From TrEMBL:
Belongs to the EXORDIUM family. Keywords: Apoplast, Secreted, Signal. GO terms for cellular component: apoplast. It is found in: Secreted, Extracellular space, Apoplast. Coiled coil: none annotated. It holds the Pfam family Phi_1. This is Protein EXORDIUM-like 3. Its main location: secreted.
């Protein structure tokens, strides 16, 4: 998902910030969705052919429209530690699926096509010194925000306060690690986030020193199971306006969480390559960056584009996935490969 240039609400004082980019972004609106999701307003046709071959297809296999550039900012080259905030009500089984995915990113000895193989494409990105994105992604500390400290309806700005509460908590605060920490805020299926479902399934940005005390790269991803699984957990759920499309069986038997996995992967890949929104993205306007996962939204396999996922794998249990993790399978979208100049993933048929 594109990252958030926070929308300024009239009652909110503008934080004092260094950096022109951020100030400009504060005054502009939310960035649009570049890639393909079955957004309700994106229902141009009931023509299956159009649905299959529309959308992000133009990016796949073609670099003609894509001018991904490096804008000289930092990327995450040191070992990445993911600190998770579980906001709201989470089942143990749901946490296990998400931890299982995060643990798979740098796992060795997993059968190909693997999550670690997917991350290899992210590792191809470098900073100005030529240092690559870290191979290592580890689980850090976790914080439970069981009692909805900031309510059941969050905004792009209020989530910074959620993160602040987590890093300043009196008991077991999350460690402050601006250099190689990545803060993952996950909201349960009864929490609404500004623009959720209509425009975004997840986004990433960084915290403001004026609110949190530090500049910490973070991502938010919500469980869409109750609000809009047909949009944010596609293809494990299908919107009503797409009759004739059957949902696929999710690999870990939890439609909402299995749908979150690909969004989490999307955001982590973009955070690693564009943590302060001044490194790797396409487009002229840093408020509307098209990042390495935006370019491949909805593409999970060879031939993917529009509502067609591309060639996937079928488990013996009938579930659909495209890569193996530690003891689990996942369906994860591809990311832009800067060497090949197209979207690629570990399950590509042509590699
Ligand atoms: C499909 O589109 C045609 C022409 O636009 C329209 O007449 C028809 O009612 C539509 N069918 C459905 C199921 O939406
Ligand atoms: C659907 O769209 C495709 C491509 O735009 C077109 O070739 C085809 O004739 C359309 N089918 C119908 C039933 O309208
Ligand atoms: C680092 O990035 C360069 C440039 O994309 C690439 O050629 C090289 O293979 C990458 N190294 C690793 C370990 O991924
Ligand atoms: C980074 O992770 C690797 C394992 O992938 C480990 O060997 C190394 O010591 C770590 N480096 C630091 C600075 O923690």
């Amino acid at each position: 998902m594109p990252n958030s240039c926070p929308r300024r609400s009239p009652a909110t004082p503008v934080p004092v910030l260094a950096g022109l980019t951020v100030i400009i972004c504060l005054f502009s609106s939310v960035s649009p969705v570049i890639g393909w999701r079955p957004w309700p307003n994106q229902q141009p046709t009931n023509n299956t052919t159009d649905l299959l071959f529309g959308g992000s297809k133009k990016y796949e296999g073609s670099s003609e429209f894509v001018h991904l550039r490096y804008h000289m900012g930092p990327v995450l080259t040191a070992n990445i530690t993911v600190h998770t905030i579980w906001y709201g009500t989470w089942q143990k089984s749901q946490k296990r699926i998400i931890r299982g995915f995060l643990n798979s990113i740098s796992a060795v000895d997993v059968k190909a096509p693997s999550v670690a193989g997917w991350w290899k494409t992210v590792q191809l990105y470098t900073d100005q010194t030529g240092a690559n994105i870290s191979r290592t992604v580890v689980l850090g500390e976790e914080k439970n925000d069981r009692f909805y400290s900031h309510g059941k309806s969050l905004t792009r700005l209020s989530i910074q306060s959620v993160i602040k509460s987590a890093v300043t908590a009196r008991t077991k605060p999350l460690p402050v690690n601006p250099k190689s920490g990545l803060y993952l805020l996950l909201t349960s299926d009864d929490v609404y986030m500004q623009d959720f479902c209509g425009q975004v399934c997840g986004f990433h940005y960084f915290t403001f020193p004026s609110i949190v005390g530090y500049t910490l790269p973070y991502a938010w991803v919500g469980n869409s199971a109750k609000l809009c699984p047909g949009i944010c957990a596609y293809p494990f759920a299908v919107p009503v306006y797409m009759p004739g499309f059957k949902p696929m069986k999710s690999p870990n038997s939890d439609v909402g969480v299995d749908g979150m996995i690909s969004v989490i992967a999307h955001e982590i890949a973009e955070l690693a390559t564009n943590p302060l929104v001044n490194a790797w993205y396409a487009g002229q306007d840093p408020c509307f960056p098209t990042e390495i996962a935006d370019l491949c939204e909805g593409i999970y396999g060879t031939g993917g584009g529009g509502s067609y996922t591309g060639q996937l794998l079928d488990g013996h249990d009938g579930a659909t996935y495209n890569m193996n993790g530690v003891g689990r399978r996942f369906l994860v979208q591809w990311v832009w490969n800067p060497v090949l100049n197209y979207c690629s993933g570990p399950n590509a048929l042509d590699q």
